[in-house]
Amino acid sequence: MQRREAGMAAEAAACRFLEAQGLKLLERNFRCRTGEIDLIMRDGPVVALVEVRLRSTARFGGAAGSVDWKKQQRLIAAARYLTLVRRELRNHPFRFDVVALEPEGPDLRVHWIKDAFRL
Question: Is the pTM of this model over 0.90?
Answer without folding.
Answer: no
